[in-house]
Specification:
The complex is a heterodimer of chains A (272) and B (147). By secondary structure, chain A is α+β, with helices and mostly antiparallel strands. Chain A has 10 helices and 9 strands. Chain B has one domain: Fumarate reductase/succinate dehydrogenase, transmembrane subunit (3 helical TM bundles of succinate and fumarate reductases, Up-down Bundle), CATH 1.20.1300.10. Classes of the chains: A alpha+beta (272), B mainly alpha (147).
Chain lengths: 272, 147
């Protein structure tokens, strides 16, 4: 696939006090090359002043969220080849303030995440501070929330959400999905505290189910589903249906330690 | 040293009116808003005509009716019916799905990823099919001369 690809990158210099503008770079694209590889090539060979955020290069850290050909992606998770275009437009994620070039300010986004208390709240404060054992949780109960724990906080759902585009105070799909993740946790007892945060103006009721957050999520999470399930919880609570569940109790670790499974013999052995 | 504030980058109304490469539900969201605004506009016009114009005497009322018999108003009336059908039935789907029904349960994300709206898209397709069939029926009734 060796060919020349034009990267149209949005540049913004805060000190120059100008408007964002596009700058074009020609880069030699190879098979398997990602957008992030292209940006690193530009920074190393063409223009060292280009600013972008990246770290792990394998869709785990969530640093390199960008608007690539007008769709939010992780730059390390998108190959140039899959875009099927010789011109690649790279812009910073919309609905988040721009710091410089492709770097966006994630502080308001993290503050909203913090506002929903993203940690286990358990009435047994002594146990929470000095744990002596584990809280009970069945594999089925874990599955109800497990996928939402994989959130990498990249901000892509915020930039895909049409409500976040016009409502600057909206909590956003990430924070609301994380609210569901903790409310659905059987070990948690802080549902009431969290629901008061989301059940207000610019909160959960501003989600109109466009489904763009779930579609764009690079980790395959489903924030739209989590938000709708959280709405159901709120309505059930408001009409007084449903039983209040006590947070899970602790279980003491087993006295007898099971023998470790022996390390398997590899079938393929190196022959020397 | 001056503190530089990050530049605002909100898409604004463009963010909800332009869906680009997103899939079906994102477009249905736009149509839902547009049809809602259309129905509201019709309601305002309808109220003005049946109140303000009506109390001004027989001549004004009859002149208004003559204008309304223009074929373009007939097309407009049909569009109101289409908007109403879409807004009502898609609204029903939204109410059901926003209560967490017809979406399924959370599943582990296994590649290729498929979110709940796409897994349960047959419900959406069913609703849209009913809307399209009713629109065709009303097209025959309103525009093409009736039964």
């Amino acid at each position: 696939m060796d060919k020349q690809v034009v990267f149209k990158v949005q540049r913004y210099e805060p000190e120059a006090d100008g408007n964002p503008h596009f700058q074009e770079f020609k880069i030699p694209a190879k098979r398997g090359m990602t957008i992030l590889d292209g940006l690193i090539y530009i920074k190393e060979n063409l223009d060292g002043t280009l600013a972008f955020r990246s770290s792990c290069r394998m869709a785990i850290c969530g640093s390199c969220g960008m608007l690539i050909n007008n769709y939010p992606h992780l730059a390390c998770h998108t190959q140039i080849e899959e875009l099927r275009s010789d011109i690649v437009t790279v812009k910073p994620l919309p609905n988040l303030p721009i710091v410089k070039d492709l770097v966006v300010d994630l502080i308001p986004f993290f503050n909203r995440h913090k506002s929903i208390k993203p940690y286990i709240i358990h009435p047994d404060t002594k146990e929470m501070e000095n744990p002596t054992a584990e809280f009970v949780q069945s594999p089925q109960a874990l599955e109800a929330l497990l996928q939402f724990t994989y959130c990498v906080k990249c901000g892509i759902c915020i930039s895909a959400c049409p409500t976040s585009a016009s409502d600057r105070l909206f909590l956003g799909p990430q924070a609301l999905a994380q609210c569901y993740r903790y409310c659905a946790d059987t070990r948690d007892g802080g549902e009431e505290e969290r629901l008061t945060v989301v059940d207000k103006d610019h909160g959960i009721w501003h989600c109109h189910l466009a489904g763009a957050c779930s579609e764009a999520c690079p980790k395959g999470l489903d924030p739209a589903l989590a938000i709708q399930l959280l709405k159901r919880r709120l309505i059930i609570q408001a009409i007084g249906l449903g039983r209040k569940k006590q947070p899970a109790s602790i279980v003491t670790p087993p006295a007898e330690v099971k023998p470790k499974i022996p390390f398997p013999e590899f079938t393929a052995k190196r022959t020397e | 040293m001056t503190q530089i504030q990050p530049r605002r980058n909100y898409l604004g109304a463009l963010g909800w009116i332009w869906a680009g490469n997103y899939k079906l539900e994102r477009y249905l969201y736009i149509f839902h808003r547009i049809t809602g605004l259309g129905i509201l506009l019709f309601l305002l016009l309808h109220l003005v005509m049946t109140t303000v114009f009506r109390v001004q005497g027989k001549e004004v009322w009859e002149a208004t009716m003559e204008v309304l018999h223009n074929p373009w108003f007939k097309v407009g009336e049909y569009l109101v019916v289409v908007a109403f059908l879409y807004h009502a039935l898609n609204g029903l789907r939204l109410i059901i799905q926003e209560l967490g029904f017809a979406l399924g349960r959370p599943r582990p994300p296994i590649y290729p990823y498929k979110d709940s709206l796409r897994r349960k898209r047959y419900w959406t397709i069913l609703i849209i099919s009913i809307v399209v069939i009713l629109c065709v029926v009303f097209f025959y009734d309103f525009i093409a001369g009736g039964w």
